[in-house]
């Protein structure tokens, strides 16, 4: 099991309803980006590191910062090599990014939250400029108070800091705000900011233990609506 700092959850209280703010992760939560991310990652590993992996075997690397991903494969890599790997991956990803789509039912859910006056923002480890383009491409940017992501080098992709920026952007109280994500990085980043997380499992990216760390989990948008009391 990957490491997880339990201390960030110790003082969390259940959110208070009605909810007034929702922070969304992007890849694997709002968007089904696996058909774009996984081939780009597999091609980068093969081309630059001579590592042969089937794209379908790389699901666990949807969500974490790219620096974490490439250090996993090359623990001794220096920053120059990591930068080169990120650049190669990004070129391959951007060539196919237009194929990214929302998971079923989420366009309607985002719109419904927006029409209810619930403030929303995106908090993602994806580079911010890419995240903005993706959100615009899948037509949900209009509903977001902010789209917060990593800097272009991903040298600053700390999820806690990204969530903090998104929380400030929505301007809602911690107890009335929920993070929605698909990996333990989302739970941890939210916990650092006093937020509970609903872990969604429709991407298939999360391990069972990750759902156990979340305040709640949802297998469908219908379940998520019930959790949010919509």
TrEMBL record:
* Gene3D superfamilies recorded: HAD superfamily/HAD-like (3.40.50.1000), Putative phosphatase, domain 2 (1.10.150.240)
Cellular component GO terms held in the UniProt record? cytosol
One GO molecular-function annotation for this sequence?
protein tyrosine kinase activity
InterPro entries documented for this protein:
HAD-like_hydrolase_sf (IPR050155), HAD-like_sf (IPR036412), HAD_2 (IPR041492), HAD_sf (IPR023214), PGP-like_dom2 (IPR023198)
The protein's name in its UniProt record: Haloacid dehalogenase
The source organism is Winkia neuii
């Amino acid at each position: 099991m990957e490491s997880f700092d339990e201390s960030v959850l110790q003082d969390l209280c259940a959110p208070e309803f009605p909810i007034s703010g929702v922070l969304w992760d992007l890849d694997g939560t709002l968007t089904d980006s696996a058909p774009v991310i996984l081939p780009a990652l597999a091609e980068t590993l093969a081309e630059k590191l001579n590592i042969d992996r089937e794209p379908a075997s790389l699901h666990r690397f949807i969500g974490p910062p790219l620096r974490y991903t490439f250090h996993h494969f090359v623990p001794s890599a220096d920053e120059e090599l990591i930068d080169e790997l990120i650049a190669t991956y990004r070129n391959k990803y951007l060539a196919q990014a237009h194929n990214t789509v929302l998971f079923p039912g989420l366009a309607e859910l985002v719109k419904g939250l927006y029409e209810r006056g619930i403030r929303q923002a995106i908090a993602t480890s994806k580079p911010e400029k890419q995240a903005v383009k993706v959100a615009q491409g899948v037509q949900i940017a209009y509903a977001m108070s902010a789209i917060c992501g990593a800097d272009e080098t991903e040298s600053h992709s700390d999820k806690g800091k990204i969530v903090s920026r998104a929380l400030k952007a929505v301007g809602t109280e911690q107890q009335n705000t929920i993070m929605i994500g698909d990996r333990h990085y989302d739970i941890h980043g939210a916990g650092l900011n006093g937020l509970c997380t609903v872990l969604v499992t429709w991407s298939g990216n999360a391990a069972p233990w990750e759902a156990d760390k979340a305040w709640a989990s949802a297998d469908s948008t219908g379940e998520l609506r019930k959790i949010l009391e919509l």
